[in-house]
Amino acid sequence: MPVMSITKPHLGLPALLLLFLRALVLGLLTTAPLLQHANGAMVELPQVLGSAMNVSAAMGKTAKLQCKVNNLNKYKVAWFHMDRQMLLTIDTIVVTRIPRFSVTRDDEITWTLHIQDVSKEDRGEYYCQLNTEPVTNQKVFLNVV
């Protein structure tokens, strides 16, 4: 008995691009990461907008470190100072005992860490972190001049 081979049709780049565009228009693809809940609903995971930043503040003044987060939903934003290995805030609650730190939610997507009376010890890497799995974060480097 002769053996027959079946080959799949080869899709060239234009055909693949057309399929991709159709899927995008039909909503089958999204640029935002998705998470499937136990009830089967698909929701967008939060995303930190932007990339690592450098902020400078004069000694004795107030430093403002910003983080913009899209689609926060039920997740929380926390601020962490890497050099001190210290969690500073969770949501709008300050958890550090250093009274110079405060946090505000300026609008739906903007979280600002305020550091009053900035000192040299405040210099270093700060992370705006989301409690997603895996963790999502954005680095902000504070330079004190």
UniProtKB/TrEMBL annotation:
Residues 46-143 form the Ig-like domain. Transmembrane segments: none annotated. GO terms for biological process: synapse organization. Gene3D superfamilies: Immunoglobulins. InterPro entries: Ig-like_dom, Ig-like_dom_sf, Ig-like_fold, Ig_sub, Ig_sub2, Ig_V-set, Zig-8. GO terms for cellular component: neuron projection membrane. Keywords: Signal. Residues 1-27 form the signal peptide. The keyword Lyase does not apply. This is Ig-like domain-containing protein. It comes from Meganyctiphanes norvegica (Northern krill).
